Amino acid sequence: MDTALLARPAQPRSLIVTIYGLYAREAGGWLSVAALIRLMASLAIDEPAVRSAISRLKRRGILVADRIDGAAGYGLSDQAKAILAEGDRRIFGRRVGKPEDGWVLAVFSVPETERTRRHTLRSRLSWLGFGNVAPGVWIAPAHVAAEARDTLGRLDLAVYVDLFTVHAIDASNLSRDVARWWDLERIEATYAEYLRHWRPISHAWQHRGLIDAELAFADYVRTLTAWRRLPYLDPGLPAALLPSDWQAAEAAEVFFALHDRLRAPAHEFVESVR
Questions:
Q1: pLDDT at position 183
Q2: 253 CB contacts (<8 Å, ≥6 apart)?
Q3: How does residue 227 score in pLDDT terms, banded at 50, 70 and 90?
């Protein structure tokens, strides 16, 4: 059985974003519709589903229609390019905090008349890896601070937020507190789900001889699509504050083993399709 078929199905939109992040940016952020349809066919996504997903991404301001040398296609918006660049640091980095690094506190106040902005701010802080301490007070490991400043500034949300880097924090019940500030059970369950699907696939690839480039592309795009959620769910808390059976390190090993094994042949397949 093809290992790609064992992966958990992903939404076409998510797969397209992964493809653009991996392969379109190196070509100016643009892919032809014909090439994208061919690439998505390798992921068992048919043309109507691809076109529907493209339309949704266009409405969300992720893709912009553009014709190059007479070929219809779509490029990444400036906003999408910025988001993907931020994502690179998280997805392909291994951020793990240390107790001595300290913490960053986000304290905000948004007028009642701007409820939408308040919801956006809360969502963005959660997406950045902050945990909720109390109404209007959020916390994250200090290594999140620079990205938080950049992101909140880009989204015009910085005016509502004060960020403080602190080192002195009551450590007597810190393990209990982080379990209250973050949904550790959800994060751990997501790591377990990733490992359940991708550990055997990674093992199979490490023992595979001749590599099928199209299959390598399919598995690489799917595993990256599954993985890229995790660095946003997991803020990279110090290991001493986490359960002893925390699976983040093992999941990262599986992902990066697949990344190292599949990246080159997957790229070769994409080049044959462009």
A1: 94
A2: none
A3: very high
